[in-house]
Specification:
The complex is a heterodimer of chains A (1161) and B (121).
Chain A: H1 2-6, H2 12-23, E1 27-31, E2 37-40, H3 42-48, H4 52-55, H5 69-82, E3 86-93, E4 99-110, E5 116-125, H6 127-148, E6 154-158, E7 164-167, H7 169-175, H8 179-183, H9 193-209, E8 213-220, E9 226-237, E10 243-252, H10 254-276, E11 280-284, E12 290-293, H11 295-301, H12 313-316, H13 322-335, E13 339-346, E14 352-363, E15 369-378, H14 380-391, H15 396-402, E16 406-411, E17 416-419, H16 421-427, H17 431-434, H18 445-461, E18 465-472, E19 478-489, E20 495-504, H19 506-528, E21 532-536, E22 542-545, H20 547-553, H21 557-560, H22 571-587, E23 591-598, E24 604-615, E25 621-630, H23 632-653, E26 658-663, E27 668-671, H24 673-679, H25 683-686, H26 697-713, E28 717-725, E29 730-742, E30 748-757, H27 759-782, E31 784-790, E32 795-798, H28 802-806, H29 816-822, H30 825-840, E33 844-852, E34 858-869, E35 875-883, H31 885-940, H32 946-974, E36 982-984, H33 986-1003, E37 1007-1012, E38 1019-1021, H34 1023-1040, E39 1050-1058, E40 1062-1068, H35 1097-1107, E41 1111-1116, E42 1122-1129, H36 1142-1159
Helix pairs in contact in A: 2-31, 10-19, 31-32, 33-34, 34-35, 34-36
Chain B: E1 7-11, H1 15-27, E2 31-35, H2 38-43, E3 52-56, H3 64-73, E4 80-84, H4 91-97, E5 102-105, H5 110-120
Parallel strand pairs in B: 1-2, 1-3, 3-4, 4-5
The chains are: A alpha+beta (1161), B alpha/beta (121).
Amino acid sequence: MLLVLSTARKDPVEDEFSRVVNALPGLIWIALPKGNVDFVNRYWCEYTGIGMGGACGVGWQTAIHPKDLPELLERWQSIIVSGEPGEMEARLRRFDGEYRWFVFAVNPMRDEAGQILRWYGLNSDIEDRMRAKEDLHAHQGGSFLSIGDGIPALISFTSPTGEIESVNRHYLEYFGITLDEAKSWGTNDMVHPAHRQTTIDSWRRSVQTGKTFDVEHRVRRADGVYRWFQSRGLPLNDVDGRIVSWFVTATDIDDRKLAEEALRNSERNFRQIVDSIPGLVCTMTPTGEVEQLNRPLLEYFGKASAELKGWKMTDAVHPEDLPRVVAAFTDSVTTGIPYDVEHRCRRFDGIYRWFQVRALPVQNSDGQIAGWYVLLTDIEDLKQAEESLESGELDLRSVINTIPMTAWSTEADGYCDFVNQRWLDYSGLSLEQVRGWGWSAVIHPDDLADLVGHWQSCLASGASVNTEARMRRFDGVYRWFLFLGNALRDESGDIVKWFGTNVDIEDRKESDEALRTSARNLDLIINTIPMLAWSTGPDGFVEFLNKRWLDYAGMSAEEGAGWGWAAVIHPEDAKGLLDYWQAAMASGTDVDVEARMRRFDGVYRWFLFRASPLRDEMGNIVKWYGTNVDIEDRKRSDEALRANERNLRQLTETIPEMLWSATSEGAIDYCSGRLLDYTGFTPDEIMGANWTKLLHPDDVDRTAREWMSCITTGAPYRVEVRTFHAADRNYRWCETKALPLLDQEGRILKWHGTVVDTHDRKRIEEELRRSEAFLAEGQRLNLSGSFSWRLDTDEVVFTDQLYPIFEFEHRTPVTLERVASRLHPEDVQLMYDKIALAREGQSDISYEIRLRMSNGSIKYLRAVAHATRDQEGQMELVGAIQDVTERRVSEEALGKVRSELARMARVASLGALTASIAHEVSQPLSGIITNANTGLRMLGAVPPNVDGTLETVRRTLRDGNRASEVISKLRSLFTKKDFTAEIVDLNEATREVIALLMSELQRSRLMLRIQLADDLPPVMGDRIQLQQIILNLLLNASEAMTDVDNRSRHIVVTTERDGVDSVRFTVQDVGVGLDPQNMEQLFDAFYTTKNGGMGMGLSVSRSIIESHHGRLWALPNDGPGATFAFSLPRAPEGVGVIEDDDLGSIQRSALNTMRSVMRDL
Amino acid sequence: MKNKRSLISVVDDDESIRESLPDLLRELGFAAHTFSSGEEFLASDYVDQTNCLILDIAMPGMSGPELQCELTSRRITIPIIFITAQRDEAVRPRLLKLGAVECLLKPFSEADLLGALDAVF
C-alpha cells in the first residue's frame, strides 16, 4: 500500500482509488503515519481552492484559521501518538476566503501486523452548530435585561460597538425620555454640552479597548435640571472573551458634587481674602509651616508663590535675630499664645528692615487652632528713630515729629508731657488738650478701661506697654492702634520717663476680622448639615466636630478634638472602630462602618460612620470629612427580626430538612444544622455571599444568576445544582428551592429555602437521557439506524436515522417492496435468501448488502438482525443497519491493493521456486551438454579418442541421473508420504477455515450454507494439511462464482458419513462449472482454468488426500456449478496422536513454508 | 594456434563443470586448469599465467564478481567469461559493464562458448 500510493500515478489500482475518493462527496484527506498529508480529494481541493500539490505535506495548514492552527496541530500530534481514531475542531478557509468551523475526524488504517499505514481524515462542516452555540451564549447576555427592569438602578445595555440597545424602566422614568432619545445621547441634549464630547471620547475609548468606562458628567433629569452622574460601564464577555454587550449603570452624585464644591469654594474664599489684605500677611499651618504669603509680602521678599516650598525662616530673618525668633515661634506654636517679635527681614534687594511680626492663632468655632495668621509691620523708621533717640545725637523732638507715626512721652507717674505732631494731626487735638490725661478723650469708650488698666499696671511694674485700643481720628472715625511704650530709667534704675508710639493697625484688624468671618462661613456650612459631621487631618487627628455632634455627645470641641471623641464610643465597639479607622486612613478608602455612640444623657445609639478623604492636586490626602448617621431605629428593627428568627431557628433545627434563609438582598443569614452537617462547612464560611462555596464551580455562575433574578423579581427560586457533600468529599446534585416572605405591602422581607439531595435520581435521569442521546447520536454519527420487521405481516418499522440512509422521505411507510426497490439488483436475491433463513428460524443474521440510489451511486449497508418472537408469538426481526459505504469503498480499494500484492507475492515465490528448480537442474544439464560436446569432438578426432569419449559418456549418464534426482526430490516435496497423524474433527477444522475466510466471502457477497453432520466420526491425519485442502476447495468455489450475477451466489459446505468407515467433505458452488471432457485433467499438475493459478492446487490436494488413504474427486452439478469432495477413512477407535518419526517434524516445518504458497497455487 | 597453448582457468564449485569443461577446452586447443573456489585460484601459482578465466557467479565463499573485484584491486587483468545457472536478466549487462567478456547461462552450447572465447583470443 505504501509503495503503491507513493509511486507514480500510472498504477491502475491507484487511479481507481483516487477516482473513488475523489467522487466521495466529503472533504477527505489521507496522511502518512507521521502526519504529513499526501492526498486530498477533489472536494477538498475545490472547497479550499488549494490544489493537491499545495495541500500535501504541511501545505494544508494554510487553509486553517491561524488562531485555531496551534491547537489543531497539538491535537493532531496527540492523535498520531495515540494511534487511535480522533476528532479535532478548527475553522477551515473556503476558496472565497470565508472561514467555517469544521470537525476533523480521523481514523488510522493499519496493515495486518497492526502498523499504521495511513491516516484517513474527513472534514465535516459544523459552522451552523457552532453559530447556534454562540447565539445561545450571546442571548444569555440579553437575559440580564429582563432582570434589569427589576434592579432599582439606572441601567443600559449597549451593543459591543457601543450603541445603546436597551435601558431599564428606571432609566427611562428617571430621565423622562424614550428609548430612542437614550440611544441618541451623543447628539441630543441629554448629556450637558460641556461634558458631551469628553463622554463620547471616553466611551469610544472603552469600547475600543474593552476597558471599564467610568465618567462623571452632568445629565438632564426628567425635570430638565442637569445633575451630576457617575456612569460606569462594564463589558459582558462570551466564553471566548469577546465582548457581546456593555452593561452601563448611572448613579446620581449631584449632592455629593455640590458638597464638594461648597467645600472647595469656602477654602478658595479664604485664600482670596488673605491675598487681598493690604498689609504684609502670611498664613501658617497649626504646626508653623508657611502656607501662603499674600501678594505684598511676596513682593517684599521678591519671591514667586511657587518658590515658597522649601522656603525657610533663615532665608528671611537676620542671622542675629534668628535664635530669638525661633525660640519665640516654637513657644507660640506649642502653647497657642500669640506671637509678637521684632526682628529684621531681608527685602528682595538684600537690605534688612525691622519688622514687628505678630502671629495670631486662627481658631475655628470650637477653639481649635486651624492655622496662624501672621502680620508683618515695617518698623524700620521707628527703630531708626529709637536708635537716634538713644544716641541722643539728634534733636529728639524734630526726629519724633518727623517719624511717620504717632509718638508720645510721659512723666514717670504716667502724666503725658508730650505727643508728636502726627499724633495731634490724627486726633485733631492741641497739645494742651492732650497733656496729662487729656488724651484719654480720644480713646474708644469700650477700650478705655482696658487701656487705662494696662497703662496703670505698666506704670506699677515698669513693664513695656503693649496693648491695642481704638483711637478717634479728627473726623470722628475710630481706628485701631497698637500702643507700645517703654520706660526710660536712670543709672540707679528708677524710671524717669516713658516713651511710646501708637501704630495704626486698623487694616490688620480688618483682615483679622475678614479671616474670622471666612472661617465662620465654613463652620456654618458644616454646622448646618443636619447630621453629625466632623473633619480630621490626614493623620486622623480630629480637628473639627460640628455643633450637632457636640450637642449629641454633650462634649465641648476641646474635649472631642484629637482622639477625645473616642470616649463616647461604646466600649464594645471602640476597638473595632479604631482599627477600622486606622486601616481606612492607611489605605485612603472610604469609611463605612457602624458603631454605638453615647448620647449626652448616657444612652448609646447605633450610628453609621461614613467618611471620605479630600485630596490635593497631587492626590495626597489633605483632610477627612466624615458624618455619623443615627441608625438606631433600623438596628433595633433588625435586632427584633433577629430575635424573631432565633425562635424560628430553634424550630427549624428540629425539622428533618436542610433549611436556609437569606435576606431580601440575597445574603444567606441562616443554614440549618442539617445543611451544615451535609456540606461540612461552618456557618461563617458560607454566610452572606459565600454560599457559592458550597457549589460545584461550574454551577456557580448559573446559580448566582438565577438567585439574583429571583431576589430581584421575587419569583420562586428553584435550581438543581451540584452541592458539596462532606461525607464523600464530592459534589452531589441537590434541588435547592426558596420562596420569598412578603410584608403587607408585598415587599420581600426574607427568603426561606430548602435543599434536597436529588443526586441518585438525577444520576439515573442523566444516565437514561445520556444513553438515549448516545444511541441517537451514535446512530447519527455512525450513519446507522434500527429497524424491526414482522415476518408474518411484513410490517417494517424504521427509526428516523434510517430514512436518510435509504433516501426515503421522512416517516413515510416502509414496505419490503420499497426496500427491495432500493437494493442493488444483484443483491435482491441475497435479501430474499436472508429472509428465507429467518423464516426457517435462524435467529442471528448478519450480512452486507448494496443499495443503488436514484443518482446511480452505490451505498454499502451492513445489517445485523436478531429474530425474536413478540408478545403475540409472532416472529419479528429486530436489527440495525449501518451505512458502511465510506469504509467499504476504502476497504475495497485496500482489498484490491492487497490482492494485487498477494498476487505479486505469489508470483515472486513462484519465481523463487522456479529459479531454485532451474538452478538445480541447470547444473547437471550444463555438464551433460558439455560432456556430449566433448565426446563428439573426441570421437570426431583422428584417430578417435575412445577412452576420452567413454569418460565423457559416463559423466553424461551420471549428470542425467543427477537431474532426474532433482525432479523426483521436488515431487516428493509436494506429495509427501509421511505426515504427523493426529485425531482430527473435520467439522471443527472446517469451522476454523470458514471463520478465517468469512470476511473474504462476505466481500464477495457470497452466501455460505453450512451443513455439518452432528455425529461425524474423527479422522486420522495432518490437521493443517487437511485444512489447507478445505481452504483450497472453498477458494476455488468462490472464484468460480466471480462472474455470476444472475443467480444467488452461494456455497454449500457439507460434512457427512460416507459409508461405515469413511467421512466425506463436500463443497458445492453455482459457479462456471466443469467441462466433462476435462474432468480427469483437473487433477493433473499445471492444469488450470484460472488466470493467476499454476495448476498445482488440486494436484497437490489430491496427493495429500491420497497420502491419507482417501479420495478427492469432482462432479458437475445438475444445475450450474460443480461439486468437489473428498473422503477419508475414519480414525480407528482409541487411537491417540502418533509420533511418526523425527523426520515428520522436519518435513512439517518445510510444509508450513509451502503452505502459504500453496494457498495460491 | 599459438606457440604456447593459452591457459584457461575454470573456477566453479560444481564438480560436473570442473570435470567436463576442461576436457572440452583442451579439445579446442587450450590448456585448462580447474579450481573449486576463488580463494583456491588466488592462492595458486596460475594467477599470473592465466590468459582467460571462466568463472561461476554463485559460489560458496567468494563469489565470481568478488573475485573479479579482487583481481582488479591487485591490478591483474585477465579476460573473464562468467557462467551461471541463475537466469537473472539484470546480471549480464551489469557484469559486462564491469569488464567481463561474456556471461553464459548454463547450460550453454559449444557455439556460445566458442563465441566467447573468440572475443578473448
